[in-house]
Amino acid sequence: MVGRRGPLQAPFTTMELRELGHMEQMAEVDVVVERADFDGITDEDLAAADKTVRTNIKVLREYAELQPEGAKRRVVFRFATSPVEIRGTDKVESIVLGRNELVDEGGRVVAKDTGEREELPVQLVVRAVGYRGVAVDGLPFDERSGTIPHENGRIEGREHEYVVGWIKRGPSGVIGSNKKDSADTVETLLADLEEPRFDEGHAQELHDWLLSRQPRLVTDAHWERIDAHERAIGEAQHRPRVKVSNVEKLLGIAHG
């Protein structure tokens, strides 16, 4: 299992990571993690990381302490590694891997090729890169990174238009990353709102206009109803919340 960045950037969920080593079907499989993959992770890094990431690191370190039992199969985690070339005649026979150096670029950890290479014999390669942004008509787009160019979440060359999430920074991180990402953009939006531009009473005028365009507008008060509903269902199941994913049901709760 090859990942271009390190354990701190791996977007696992803790449940799937734990189950990897405890499923009945994995009884004859060794899970292998190298201790050296954690050498560059400091206490400060862990303190700044999302709770899920910290738990994942704990689980991965537990795997790293295990001694392989000589099982017929192994699942080997290879961090800071990227596939460079797939080789073979009429079929996959080997893969060339490149070793990466992790570099901080403006608060984002990116993988830089060190030039170090390794060739491994393989019969199957599964590509799992997840996501790449696509251009939206009328908005700028960076083809290289698959993101919308922006300054602190404010779309370049656009007025009062903002961007968050993977289309802002690329496919990286976990839910906690998106929270901070969104908070940064909202901070920019609020700063823009403080600039005087509207006459008094404009808020009501804007509200009335929005209602004329969308009668089932979801306001902050409506969101609080949805939030209370999801929390109530979750409490009954000993969970923080149970998300409602059906749009019509969400609107019904909000406006019910």
Quick take:
This protein is of the alpha+beta class. It is built from eight helices and seven strands, in the order H-E-H-H-E-E-E-E-E-E-H-H-H-H-H.
Strand-helix topology:
Elements: H1 14-20, E1 29-32, H2 43-48, H3 51-65, E2 73-76, E3 81-87, E4 94-105, E5 108-121, E6 150-151, E7 154-155, H4 166-169, H5 175-193, H6 202-213, H7 220-236, H8 247-255
Parallel strand pairs: 1-2
Antiparallel strand pairs: 3-4, 4-5, 6-7
CATH topology of the largest domain: FAD/NAD(P)-binding domain
Structural class: alpha+beta
CATH architecture of the largest domain: 3-Layer(bba) Sandwich
CATH class of the largest domain: Alpha Beta
Approximate shape = globular
Enumerate the spans where pLDDT stays under 50 for 5 or more consecutive residues: none
Distance between the termini: 48 Å
Q: What's the number of extended β-strand segments?
A: 7
Order of helices and strands: HEHHEEEEEEHHHHH
**Beta fraction of the residues?**
15-25%
User: What topology, given as strand order, has the largest sheet?
Assistant: 3-4-5
Provide the number of structural domains.
2
Number of helices: 8
Q: Main beta sheet, described?
A: 3 strands, antiparallel
In the CATH hierarchy, what is the superfamily of the largest domain?
A: FAD/NAD(P)-binding domain
What does this structure look like?
The protein is α+β, with helices and mostly antiparallel strands. The chain has helices at residues 14-20, 43-48, 51-65, 166-169, 175-193, 202-213, 220-236, 247-255, and strands at residues 29-32, 73-76, 81-87, 94-105, 108-121, 150-151, 154-155. A hairpin with a 2-residue loop joins strand 6 and strand 7 (154-155). The protein folds into 2 domains: 7-121, FAD/NAD(P)-binding domain (3-Layer(bba) Sandwich), CATH 3.50.50.60; 150-255, 3-Layer(aba) Sandwich (Rossmann fold), CATH 3.40.50. The relative contact order is 0.09. The longest helix has 19 residues, at 175-193. This is NADPH-dependent glutamate synthase subunit beta-like oxidoreductase. InterPro entries: FAD/NAD-bd_sf, Ferredox_Rdtase. It comes from Mycolicibacterium neoaurum. Its cofactor is FAD. One of its GO terms (molecular function) is oxidoreductase activity.
